[in-house]
Write the C-alpha cells for this entry.
Amino acid sequence: MDKKSIRGYIEGYYGRLLSWEHRELIVKSLYKNNMNTYFYAPKEDIKHRLCWKQNYSKSWRLNFRKFTDISKKYKINIIAGIAPGLDFNFKQLNEKSKKIKKSDFEFLLGKAKKLLNDGATSIALLLDDIPPDFKNKFGVDVSEGTYHAILANKLSKELGQNIFFVPRIYADELIQDEPLYLKDLSKRLDPKIIMFYCGKNVVSKNLSNYKLIKKTLQNRIVFWDNYYSNDYCPRRIFIGPYFGRQNINDIMINPTGLVETDLLILDICANNFRGKNNIKEWLNVLNMHGVPKQFIKIKKFFLRPDFGYNPPNPKVKINDKDFKSLDFLLWKWKGKLSREWYPFIFGLKQDLQINQKLLTSERKIKTQTTPLSEFLLKGELE
C-alpha cells in the first residue's frame, strides 16, 4: 500500500456480520466518498478469530475473491485480518522449542497467504481484546510486548510485505493493564509495520491528545475510530456530526454493522475529510438519506457517545412534541433506515416514558428484561 492517506471502513465490531452484497455497497460508498480501504476483521466470523486455525470453505473463498475483484474495480484496498491471540502458542516462537507437526505460526502464515492469493491487498495481525494472562501462560522470560513484536515481524518477513498490526494495548486507557507493553513492543517491532490505535480512549472524544504511543513508536499510526460504534452499548446508536477528527490523514471508521446506517455514517465522515464538518452539512446528509425532520427534533439523544472515565450524569428534558416526533418516526416513517433504527427509537420512547413516570407497571414487566423491570418496580414501592 502506498503512502497516501489511509481512510475507510472497518468491519471490526461484535454482534453483526455483513453479507457480501452489503460489503459491496460499502465499497461503492468508499469510492464515492474518496476513501480507499476496507478492513475485513469481523469478530463474528469465527474463522477470523475464535477458530482462526480453521480454513475458509471453497464457497467463502469464491465470495471473497469476487469481493476483492469488485474492490479493485473501485480502487479500494482490502486489508484482511487474522486474530489468533486467544490461543496462539507463543512458546513455539522460541527457537529452542520442540519441533511439532504444524506450529501455530505455520497455520497463521498459510491462512495469510491464502487471503493474499484470493485478492487481499494486505494482511493485518490482530492481538486486541484478549485476556491479560500472558505471563501465566508463557512465563516472564520474555515480555508480552516483545513476543507480539516478534510474531508481527516474522509474519511480515515471511509474507514479504509490510503488514498492519493491532496491539493488545490499543488505547491510552489500556496502558495500565500492562505498563511496559508499548515500550517493549517498540524495541522489537519493525518500524515499517503499520499500527492501529484508538487514541486516548477506546472511544475517543478527539484524536489529538493521545500520549505514549507517539513518544514510543516510530511506526505509522492509523486510527481505529470507534466514534460511531455501538457494540458496547447495543441499545444506543450515534449518528451525529463527526467532530474531533480534523486534520487526521490515516483514519478508519468502525461503525455499527447496520448497512444503511453505516452508509449514512460514511457520508457524514466524508464531509469531515472534505473540510465541511458543520451542522448544515450534517443535516444535508440526513436529508439525502431520507431522514425526516421529526428526527431532528429528538436528535440530542443520538448525537455522540458519552466520553471519558466519569461522564457527567445527563439531564433529560422532554415535552409532548418530542413524544409526537417519536410516534411519527415509529409509525409513519418507512424505509430501510427506519427499520434499522426502529429498536433504538422505540427503546428511547420507553426510557423517556419510564423517566417521566408514564409507563405502567404492567408495561414495564412486559417490555423490560426481568432484572430491570424488577429494579424499576422496587423503586416504585420504596
User: Anything to note?
Assistant: The CA atoms of residues 87 and 363 lie 45 Å apart. The first strand starts at residue 7 and ends at 11. Strands lie at 7-11, 37-40, 77-82, 122-126, 164-166, 194-197, 221-225, 251-253. The mean pLDDT is 92.
